[in-house]
Amino acid sequence: MLHDRFFIGNQWAKPATDAQFTIKNASTGETVGTTAEAGTADIDAAVIAARSAFDEGEWPRLAPSERARIMRRFAEELRKRAPLTAEAVSTQNGMPISISGAFEGDVAPNILDYYADLADEMVLEDVRPSQFGTETFVQRLPVGVVAAIIPWNFPVNLSLVKLGPAMAAGCTMVIKPSPGTVLDSYVMAEAALAAGVPAGVLNWVPADREVGQYLIEHPGIDKVAFTGSTAAGRKIAARCGELLRPVTLELGGKSAAILLEDTDLDTFTQGIPTACLLNNGQTCYLGTRILAPKSRYDEIVEAVAGFVGALKVGDAMDPETHVGPLASEEHRARVERYIEIGKTEGRLVTGGRRPGASQGGWFVEPTVFADVDNGATIAREEIFGPVLSIIAYEGEEQAIEIANDSDFGLGGSVWSQDKAHAKAVAEKVHTGSIGLNGYVISVGSPFGGIKQSGMGREFGPEAMNAYQTYKSIFAMN
Ligand code: NAD
């Protein structure tokens, strides 16, 4: 594995320029190394490799079950490297190692197995009768060369959830990791090489956003799969609109955790780490607006503040850590700006500062504001850090109204001892997904947003739609 190269056409390709990313440890602020940074010439080389693998190579022409076999080997090679992957992610973005070990290391490869199973069952052609008594052959074809743009928060999952359906469909890809998490992409590339994924099918070129924009506009690209902020997504969507290039957008969120009157507070507080604060708050679907009934408001504020205030903040590599540092100094500054705004908009009940023993890492204490109005900046904008707002409501209808009064519609949760009741409330929330008494994404179920949280779905069989196109052959006699 060579961090001064790119993975293009199954070769460790020499960069066209000397540009480099400096890789820092989020927990200490120390520089841990450098990696090559792609420029436009490197993107050209990666697109040429992916284009040639698609236009002339074996991959799109293999039987889907043969692609499935290679995908399962790729998953296996990733599993062998799970500790490396987890360490790479946690070093760079501050994700506690207990979370990266499970989510990014152990579980992420299952996504490839899931889409390998779908490839095994894939029907490439069916014959349909027409209204004139003739027949039509309907074919499912891979959409072509995919540009995948990856954010830094869950880089392995958010890569594999694009690679899985794209590979199953027979697409080839140019993958652009975020400068915020580059090291894990080398582990993925090494696993793909060891698994025998044919040359040019997967190409990794870490680059900044300007070069990323060059990639999504490249004439050799047929489809764009983007996960990241709503601001970047809007820009990419506009460009893809002009180019009439298919694009899926998985964007930001500001989801609501609705606590109904009969919520068991122990259940809720135990669910906070995954449903409201996962990865130090650096997760798109988190319920960062906690909606609490007025009748139980003080009790809820006390329980949430008590639980969040007792979480262990520390080095991402420490298995005991609940909340690690933020991904970068700039990101911490952004989160701290929101905390300052929050102090003018609500009542700070816990956190809000840098913890004493930060030792150069980009830490902020997990923070809870009470008495927040849903119109407040901290209730409307995505903070992407460990900052929760507790908003009071009177009556269930108002809770639903507040939950829906958001520019976003990505995740959320409803908490109640009566599951049927919680489900009935969940059905009224305008969102792409929602949890009952918790929130965990499932590989077999579609995930994605409505409103400013995006367009299209990842996970589940539904994700295949983005990577396949259809061709109808009308047989007249
Ligand atoms: P970001 O938008 O700054 O960057 C995401 C990726 O896009 C990076 O690789 C970046 O280099 C690239 N990029 C940015 N502008 C681009 C452009 N114009 N053309 C091409 N590439 C461009 O986001 P981030 O800070 O890396 O990630 C955090 C954001 O991602 C949050 O808003 C979060 O909610 C969102 N996110 C959404 C989901 C989801 O599934 N909906 C999942 C994870 C993260």
The DSSP helix count reads 15
Distance N to C terminus: 57 Å
Which structural class fits the helix and strand makeup?
alpha/beta
Number of strands: 22
Bound molecules: nicotinamide-adenine-dinucleotide
**How much β-strand is present in the residues?**
15-25%
Helix content percent band: 25-40%
Structural Rg: 23 Å
Taking pLDDT < 50 over at least 5 consecutive residues as the criterion, the unreliable ranges are none
Instruction: Trace the largest sheet across and list its strands.
Output: 14-15-16-13-12-18-19
What is the global morphology?
globular
Largest sheet: 7 strands, mixed
Mean pLDDT: 97
Notes on the structure:
There is one protein chain. The N and C termini lie far apart (57 Å). α2 (64-80) runs antiparallel to α5 (110-120), α2 runs antiparallel to α6 (155-169) and α2 crosses α7. This protein is of the alpha/beta class and 477 residues long. The protein has helices spanning 40-55, 64-80, 82-93, 97-107, 110-120, 155-169, 183-195, 209-217, 230-243, 265-275, 297-309, 329-345, 377-380, 396-404, 419-426, and strands at 6-8, 11-13, 20-24, 31-36, 125-129, 135-142, 145-149, 172-176, 202-204, 223-227, 247-250, 255-259, 287-293, 347-350, 367-370, 387-393, 408-409, 413-415, 435-436, 450-451, 454-455, 468-475. It is built from 15 helices and 22 strands. It is 38% helix and 21% strand. It binds nicotinamide-adenine-dinucleotide. Nicotinamide-adenine-dinucleotide (NAD) binds next to α8 and α9.
